[in-house]
Amino acid sequence: MICPYCGTVDTSISNPNVSRGDRAVLTDCPDCGETIHAVGTTDEDEDSPLETVHEYETEEGWAVDLYVQRELPNGSTHEDRETDIDREIRGPDGEIDHFLEYKSRTCSINAYDDTMFRDRKLKEARELHSEHDVPVKFLIRFLDCWAIHEYQPNREYEIRGMYRSDRGQYEDHALVPVEEFRILGWQEHLQGV
What we know:
Elements: E1 23-28, E2 35-39, H1 49-71, E3 77-80, E4 87-90, E5 96-104, E6 114-118, H2 119-132, E7 136-141, E8 146-150, E9 158-164, E10 169-177, E11 182-185
Parallel strand pairs: 5-7
Antiparallel strand pairs: 1-2, 3-4, 4-5, 6-10, 7-8, 8-11, 9-10
Organism: Halobellus rarus
Protein name: Restriction endonuclease
Pfam families: PDDEXK_14 (PF24579)
């Protein structure tokens, strides 16, 4: 378990892998005292795939603007890449600082043991890291926190086939334990649990 407020990790408490829409109180954080919840996926069926893409693109722009503003030096910028890793992040000097993939989750960070990315995103992260020798990061907005994971080029990520009911097919995904994310805070920019 990881505290979505201060980032404290407590391996003695397991994430419950709650069912869709279920919720549970895990504990109060021993460091900051906040109550930690596990809330399962809360998304509803989409009206149309095109509408979902449009809404997500708008959210992504807002989220990456916020990330650049809150986490990077003044004068940093981002550009849409229209590939599997969405954004190129440039420092105030105009040089590429890192690449960023943004994801939004409709669950709390502690709902499941892992969060997942399509395997092709890790493939592109590997290529970008090799070609540009800069970090590749994954920014995720959960219901209860913003968190970031930096791609580790020498790591063997667990890949698992998962059935996507929204797409009617199996797709390979890379799994990353939620305790390995760095909590960013920004609690005022969340839906909450």
